[in-house]
């Protein structure tokens, strides 16, 4: 079982804080090579450290240590999503998070990116790809949440039958949420007693092989309020937006992933034009932790992508003007232009004010010593 690393410097990364309307987002970034950014998006009850085994595996591959060939991950942006890791909550709606992450990448000097999302982070990766098609070159999904999770969230009875492990975790989070402040000492007791390792067994193919760093991270990131808020955002999310994705989307999940529904891959294939998935026979929900080398190989197309796929005239129109109504109830939708130069985020998004404001509040990233770094961010105010 892989070890989760918390020392960013040993991986060639440094910590920065980017203030946005979605909150102060903590990112660990670096390994610059002047190319496409690799944005890593963790799932619920996790943080940026989820991806450290994949980074280590990519370095081993570049050295030939795993018997294969490959390149180290470069231009890495490993995000602590709002409500998780060092990024404070609350957990906003997915559209707000997506716009904030795009702003983070831009603030770090990137105009193009590939997106890698684990579990609920896959929702965000696909949402960004749909909203920023000119800037997304490919999407990789690791053990992604799909239609099965949505059905379980929308119909608990169906969920209990189809995905009992997820339904059980959801119930546990609701119970812990009801305990309030008393939940923290309980979680600490479960970790010290080794009970948390037992409770986490459904998430892994080989739970007895879980490294202490993994179980400790799970204990630290079990945040009932954040989990329930993220689940609610997934419940109400409209996956029809994924129809707009035209870049390659590659997915990999463990054969023993108890959070994957029977029809998840078929549902994504119906939504996404260029979709393919791979099942790893000896992994569970945390495939990138249990088998990082296999995951790296399965997502080789994503890591090698360097430019968005060619689009039809219609898709080029979509890239200029997505026109998505996120809030139908209020009926107040404004046009928001982000950037005007060809190298900028030249998109007209029909966004509700709450989302447009998330883009307007982009600020310069702060290093650990809280010194602002100069960043060029083109944001034009809402048109009246």
From TrEMBL:
GO molecular function list: monoacylglycerol lipase activity
One GO process term, biological-process aspect: acylglycerol catabolic process
Signal peptide from the UniProt entry: none
Domain annotation AB hydrolase-1: ranges: 39-297
One cellular component term from this protein's GO annotations in UniProt: membrane
Gene3D superfamilies in the cross-refs: alpha/beta hydrolase
Protein name (record): Pimeloyl-ACP methyl ester carboxylesterase
Organism annotation: Microbacterium halimionae
Upper lineage: Bacteria, Bacillati, Actinomycetota, Actinomycetes, Micrococcales
């Amino acid at each position: 079982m892989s070890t989760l690393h918390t020392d960013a410097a040993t991986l060639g990364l440094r910590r920065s804080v980017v203030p946005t309307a979605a909150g102060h987002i903590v990112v660990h970034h670096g390994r610059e090579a002047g190319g496409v950014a690799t944005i890593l998006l963790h799932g619920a009850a996790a943080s940026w450290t989820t991806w450290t085994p994949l980074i280590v595996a990519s370095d081993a591959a570049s050295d030939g240590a795993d018997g294969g060939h490959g390149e180290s991950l470069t231009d890495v942006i490993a995000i602590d999503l709002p409500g998780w890791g060092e990024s404070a909550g609350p957990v906003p709606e997915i559209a707000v998070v997506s716009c904030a992450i795009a702003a983070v990448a831009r603030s770090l000097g990137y105009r193009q990116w590939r997106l890698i999302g684990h579990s609920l982070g896959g929702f965000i990766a696909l949402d960004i790809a749909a909203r920023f098609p000119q800037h997304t070159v490919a999407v990789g999904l690791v053990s992604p949440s799909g239609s099965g999770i949505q059905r379980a969230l929308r119909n608990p009875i169906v969920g209990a039958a189809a995905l009992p492990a997820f339904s059980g975790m959801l119930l546990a989070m609701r119970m812990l949420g009801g305990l309030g402040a008393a939940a923290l000492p309980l979680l600490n007791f479960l970790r010290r007693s080794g009970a948390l390792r037992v409770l986490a067994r459904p998430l892994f193919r080989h739970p007895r092989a879980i490294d202490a760093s993994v179980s400790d991270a799970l204990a630290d990131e079990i945040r009932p309020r954040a989990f329930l808020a993220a689940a609610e955002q997934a419940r109400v999310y409209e996956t029809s937006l994924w129809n707009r994705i035209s870049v390659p989307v590659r997915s990999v999940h463990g054969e023993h992933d108890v959070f994957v529904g029977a029809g998840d891959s078929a549902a994504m294939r119906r939504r996404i034009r260029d979709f393919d998935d791979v099942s790893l026979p000896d992994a569970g929900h945390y495939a990138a932790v249990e088998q990082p080398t296999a995951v790296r190989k399965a997502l080789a197309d994503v890591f090698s992508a360097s430019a968005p796929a060619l689009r039809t005239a219609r898709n080029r129109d979509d890239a200029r003007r997505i026109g998505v109504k996120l809030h139908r109830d209020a009926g107040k939708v404004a046009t928001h232009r982000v950037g005007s130069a060809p190298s900028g985020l030249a998109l007209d998004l029909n966004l509700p004010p709450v989302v447009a404001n998330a883009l307007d509040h982009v600020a310069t990233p702060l290093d650990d010593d809280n010194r602002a770094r100069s960043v060029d961010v083109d944001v034009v105010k809402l048109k009246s």
